[in-house]
Amino acid sequence: MNCILRRHLLSLYNTSGRLTSRAFSDAATKEKIDKLVKTNKVVVFMKGVPEAPRCGFSNAVVQIMRMHAVPYESLDVLSDENIRQGIKDYSNWPTIPQVFINGEFVGGCDIMLQMHQSGELVEELKKVGIKSALLTATEPKEEEKK
């Protein structure tokens, strides 16, 4: 009986140890995400990297950022399962990609596309001191009209 009890207690201890380390990992992940989001004007959590997105939605966000020539920090959620789940918990949003501007969660691909199409993205970027390349592309044309 003592042998059975010890094995049971040992399995509980091991499970508890894993849970404790998991909670610590989650706290460390939250801290890492928080630091990244708060120290960069624009952050994209995506599948893949900007040079090689690994899903169509991440690719669409990258293309929008390129059109506006936005400097941004990116993080590949596929390379770290803790970040992949952690960002969903952090933003309370279930899908990837996720875009943060000035420390605030903006949305995913659909929101970014809507903001791009409506011109709202240009305004949001302006608020954080980023001038969209789409503005500079239209400025010479507008001056020629005058």
From TrEMBL:
Q: Name one Pfam family in it.
A: Glutaredoxin
What the entry lists under InterPro entries is as follows: Glutaredoxin (IPR002109), GRX_PICOT-like (IPR033658), Monothiol_GRX-rel (IPR004480), Thioredoxin-like_sf (IPR036249)
- Alphabetical UniProt keywords: 2Fe-2S, Iron, Iron-sulfur, Metal-binding, Redox-active center
Membrane in keyword set: no
- Keyword Metal-binding present in the record's keywords: the answer is yes
PROSITE patterns in UniProt: GLUTAREDOXIN_2
| Glutaredoxin domain residues | 42-106
SUPFAM superfamilies in the record: Thioredoxin-like
Q: Which domain of life is it from?
A: Eukaryota
Identification of the protein by name: Glutaredoxin domain-containing protein
Native organism is Chilo suppressalis
